[in-house]
Amino acid sequence: MMERLRVGILGATGAVGQQFVRLLAGHPWFEITALAASERSAGRSYTEAANWIGSEPIPDEIASMIVQVCDPGLECDFVFSGLDASVAGALEGDFARAGYPVISNARNFRMEPDVPLLIPEVNPGHTALIDQQKWGTGGFIVTNPNCSTVGLVCALKPLADAFGLESVHVSTMQALSGAGYPGVSSLDILGNVVPYIGGEEDKLETEPLKLLGKLTGGVVQPLHTVISAQCNRVAVLDGHLETVSVRLTEPATPEQAVAAFRDYPNPIAAFGLPTAPDPFIKVFEDPRFPQPRRQAGLGGGMTVSVGRVRPCPVQDLRMVVLSHNTIRGAAGGAILNAELLVHQGYLKAK
Ligand code: NAP
Question: Is the CA virtual torsion 39, 45, 48, 53 positive or negative?
């Protein structure tokens, strides 16, 4: 068995940081050796510093670890970042400059031309951008997309490859856990829908174009398509549901679209990555599904669910897409990114 790589978590006390702690417990390749957060948390045990919101207890080996400040010098081979975006830009840059690979959830570096925005099943070859990064010391930054982008792109990729994609309309119903802790006030969300999530629609309209783009000549050429996004916060705990309609270059029937999902040649299927779900995409024929409470946890929260694939009278096809926002859309996605980087030889023991 390979020796486990030592992992630090930046923003370990937050909602995403807690998912990292939970998902890395017993991970066969990675072992948490450092936890870091703000000065408010530093110097306290993880149990004292984190307002643990998981239903299972904090793993024993983590509970008494002392939280540190986010300064390079942490004892680890690479870091995961669940940092608040207001500080992620500066701190992730500090770590990359100091020679740490940074596997980030934050938005700050996602659209930088030399930074991979990565979903392993969609664009594993974009990691070649790492070779262009100029931190100078072996450090680099890899990002995963916004939590509502992930499900959408996983569902669009087989359609884009099989039929071409002209335009996309998407409306989201996004879970509360996506807003961090304590997130949206109960008085704002109980018995209500909030039809605005700051900055979200812009991310959903731009990140997919990079993810679905082609890396040629060292540059990602974005996919030439147009996306219209409308984002809503709903009183759901976990799981972002999206209603999507698409215009295709070569029109397809719902049966052909379902066949494209089922036959999609998942590029990482043979790599044996511990967090990779099987199936990558689950298609439901029962029109009541997918639903957040019933299916967000499929494949350990890593499977993307698609249902109600049917004709659209305005575009060509429409469907419902569901993905777990703090697992596939955040910590689980980042862990899968790190596993791919191990497989490709980018992540190693220091
Ligand atoms: P959160 O619950 O508010 O946690 C933020 C974390 O950042 C905490 O650990 C906090 O530490 C730390 N932090 C804040 N200010 C800091 C500072 N000055 N120095 C060092 N650490 C600091 O937020 P979250 O929901 O986990 O989101 C974290 C990141 O992931 C964000 O960039 C978010 O956009 C992204 N993301 C979230 C989701 C999701 O579904 N929630 C999905 C995808 C991406 P303290 O506890 O010490 O304050």
Answer: positive
